[in-house]
Amino acid sequence: MAFVWISPLCATSGTAITIDIIGVPAIGADPRKTWTSTGADRSSLFLGDALHEEIPSARILLYDHLKPEERQLEVKELSDPGHKATAKAFASVEEEIAQYGTEEWANRLLEAVRGERSSQKAEKTPILFVCHSTGGIIVKRAITKRVMEGVVDIGAECLGVAFFATPHRGSSVLSEPEYVQAVQKSLGLKWEMSEHLRQEFSLQNRDLEILDYRFGPAALGMKIWSLVETHDTQLEVLSTSDVGGESLTRVDLSLVDVRSAVLSTTDVPVEEEDVIRVSATHVGIPRFANDDKVRRRYLKDLASFVQHFSAQEREAHHQLASSIMNDIHIDVHQFYEFSQPGEQDKAPLKVWSESPTLRTFLEEGPAQCLGRRMRTQVEEPDKSVRPKSSMEIRRSTEPVAPTIVVAPPTELPEAIPPRDDGTSLSAPPPEKLANIHTRRPSLTPRYTTEPIASNGHLAPQAAPQPLKDDEYRDIDGVRRPQKPPTFQLPSMNRDRFRWIHVPYTHAGWVPLVLMTVSKERDNLNLHKKLLVDKIWMSQHNRSRHASPHARFVRPSCQGLFPKELSQSHSNMQRSHSSATSEVQLVLYLPYLHWDTFKHLNMRAEVIQKRRMQDHARPVDRAIASGNSMESKLIWQYLTSNRPIHCRRTLDQYGYPSLRDTSVRDGDQILYKRTRPPRPEKELYESPLEHITGILQANRFPAGQHASIGTNDDASKVLMVDQLWLWVVDQQTVVTFAAPKEKDDIDTPLELGDLRSNIYRDVNGDYARQCDDCFDFAALVVFHAVKALLDITDDDSLQVFRIFEEYISVLTEQQTKSFKEFRDNHRNTNSRNLDVHRLPKYVDNKKDLDALLELRDIEDELGSIGKLFKDQHRSITDMLKHYHEINAKYEQGLNGTELLKEIKETIDGYQEQLDAMLKSAQTAHKAFIDLLDMKQKQANVVEAHLTREQTEVAADQSRSVMIFTIFTIIFLPLSFFASVFGINAREWSGTDSNLSLRTIFVYMGTISLGFIIVALLAAFNRFTRRIMRYLWRIIAYPFSGCFGYGLSCILGCIVDFYIYRNARQKAHASRRLSTAAVLETDIV
């Protein structure tokens, strides 16, 4: 293997190299001829000058799968003396090459790439692979190779991959023997494809499917181009006919089908894949033969991608993806029988747990993870610390278990590999336990107990019977040393089932986790049946507004039964049959949970930031360096093809079609009832808020106000989370559920946490009986339904009690309002109505506040009721499947009883909710009646005020009329008196006085001017502004004390005059009834 050509243009032009573009041909094909048009020189090379014109800073390398000496091998002519030696060498190398599979070819590629980049000291230079045909499979294997310590991972430096007609899911032409020679001739292979290699490219190949699942997470953040051939390739094959004889026949076939050339599938979605159809054959597609338009478009797209690339952004994005894969832990719990000698028939179940990272789980599988921990405990038996499971956390108040010395068993497998029959750690179905194990296996000297029958719940403990002291004494009466008790590790013949829990509801991880289990069981159909469209993708809800809260899986429960059972029960409608002889179960269930208002706002802020950009790059530094794994997952997977399902509030669950529910979320009853009280100096907006504040203050101990402050760390909101559950087979249960983020305050994290509740139940001193996977699945549903509503440790999380208290407060407020309304109108009629007490008669602000609160309560109770209906429907369907499982397989017997109890629990919740809803509706109706009476009283007050206003207006009219009459009478008298009192020339006889004509001219002109200016100032806004500006200009020189004061006084007079005119004009145009309503403060 070697690079046969490296572009020298960067070195000659002096341009700094920013990216390495590596061309990988088909296995055995010539690296130059693959990318060069027929009959053209090197200038026509696709990965040559044409690419350098678009990306001048790229270094282009052409890779050859064969070593130089292998490529140069040729068989000399028969007449040549060296023919025999060359033929022998050629055949020897061909035989050696024939043993290679895609794994060996990938190792060769990795060795060549690392060697070349190391020699150029370019280990950190980004890489972009351009591969053709089978070379694409080699690139996928190289990228998914696990990195050794101290070696740079090329997958971390890979920006993208261009697949030219790559058979991701195999090819019949490449795998069938009749096309071997034709494929060799068409692709220009050095040797024919070996049988080993052809088997790896066969259709429905298990290794290719597993490679797709591994490449999916590795390709996160990469740009993928899938170029598909659209023309058939002409092949010459040797054919026979019924007549007899052999002949060469030309057939036109597509070497790689379109469905195989596209990387993304329903099971393994790829984030950024562009599918490009090229009008070319399989051989001509890497040269873009006869399709120059697509070629130019692809080059521009590639150049644009490289130019907008940022090494820092790529590094930050890769660190974020690595942090997610390495920091998220998957819980793997092995349930096995724990028995002491002589107690095989009474063996209780014990849990052996391990928490590998997501990357480790996907690479090794659950059995390898459990086996590694078991080997670790056996290899270190002298440790003084008892090995703890991943989830076993005791509080400081709980007793600490004594030290356990783990004794190595006589026969312990190196790992826990899958069995040949497709099962792992499995044993023949054990006999059903007579009772629930009421205690963990004792770690002190044993006591013998008698089994007590149970109905599937807690069983009473039998009285302990200590062993006789004589049993530990020899014949001389000397006390013998007792044998220390030992802890029994899991073994293959005592395995019952496994529980695999993934802590986040990310749809992209579902096929990866289920495929890991199927691969370990050596039956890939296990997860394929569970992920068919009708069971998985068609159950996903999406809204047109594309808000994350509208993304969820619809509640349902579906059973997949074996074909023979499906045929015998034809009356049961089932879309699919099970992939094995066992029953498979799928359940999607919403359940009630809680969160703090602080985390709700943080989640909304992260979602808002992430939705502002189309892709995860660039990564927000605060999120990447933060401790919130939920924020990292939202940033990484929010807009992916298989996105993460974020936690939803109660209103987001009840109204998924709403684009934004932030206002409704901030108005939740639980939030308003658990938020810290406001400071005493703050004024309350309404009497109802004052009452609520007093009640909240009583809920917090004295001195706590200072520690809480005004933040929302202690405030809580109702959430609706999702539970995804799959019973893959009789040995494996897989669950997905979103955890609650950790708090900085002293609130126990495990309150309402589904995972912790389940583990405490199955691993506690008093555990429910789970004989098989179906019993455990029912137990998971049991805890999901009761996750929040059965909490008694925290008063702020007793949801029903909080609703009942608040409804009682509002009902009391309603009674008080009725009494106040009655008292205000006891001795009041329309004649003695006190105007000063009018606001009390018709004030309805606090009643409207209470009415809105009741509306919120009814709305939230309705959403909770919808949740109960969804749960009841899903559990009813689940119970129907359990009845069939009980009858046919005698499994899930305890689970059936548990499901019946769950249904009764939900019915009890529903009755309690209906009672609260009825009380809220009764108070709601009462407030509406009260508001109606107050409105009627307001109408009475309005009529009374209208009558009074009418009387006042009549009196004013009479006064104006009298004044007008007197004015009309005395105006002529005063005018003539003034005229005859003028010292005019005509009256005085003095020539120096003005004449009457001159006096009248002055009087008329000046009066007319003042009248016009006054009218303009009164009725024209523009004139008023001009007068104000002129006054400021005139008053500016007099800015001294006297002048400034005088100007202020005159300005105030002018402003008051203007304001009074405006008020009179508005008052005159306003209806009297509206004024009356405003005076009485009706809201």
Q: Main sheet, how many strands, which sense, barrel?
A: 8 strands, mixed
Average predicted local confidence, pLDDT: 78
Tell me the overall shape: flat
Rounded to an integer in angstroms, the radius of gyration calculated over CA atoms is 43 Å
What's the CATH architecture of the domain at 2-294?
Answer: 3-Layer(aba) Sandwich
- Counting helices, strands and paired strands, the structural category is alpha/beta
- Unreliable segments of 5+ consecutive residues: 382-468, 570-575, 680-688, 694-710, 1069-1083
Q: What is the CATH topology descriptor of the domain at 2-294?
A: Rossmann fold
Number of helices: 39
CATH top level class name of the domain at 2-294: Alpha Beta
Residues in helices, as a percent range:
40-55%
CATH superfamily of the domain at 2-294: Alpha/Beta hydrolase fold, catalytic domain
**Distance between termini?**
85 Å
Percent of residues in beta strands: 5-15%
What's the β-strand tally? 21
Walk me through what this model shows.
With 1083 residues, this protein is α/β, with parallel strands linked by helices. It has a domain at 2-294: Alpha/Beta hydrolase fold, catalytic domain (Rossmann fold, 3-Layer(aba) Sandwich), CATH 3.40.50. Helix content is 47%, strand content 12%. The chain has 39 helices and 21 strands. Strands 10, 11, 14, 17, 18, 19, 20 and 21 form an 8-stranded mixed β-sheet that branches. A 7-stranded mixed β-sheet has the order 1-3-2-4-5-6-9, sandwiched between helices. It has a two-stranded antiparallel ribbon with strand order 7-8. Helix 6 (102-119) packs across helix 7, helix 34 crosses helix 39 and helix 36 (996-1019) packs across helix 37. The longest helix is centred in the C-terminal third of the chain and has 88 residues, at 893-980. The radius of gyration is 43 Å and the shape is flat. The two termini are 85 Å apart. 34% of the residues are buried.
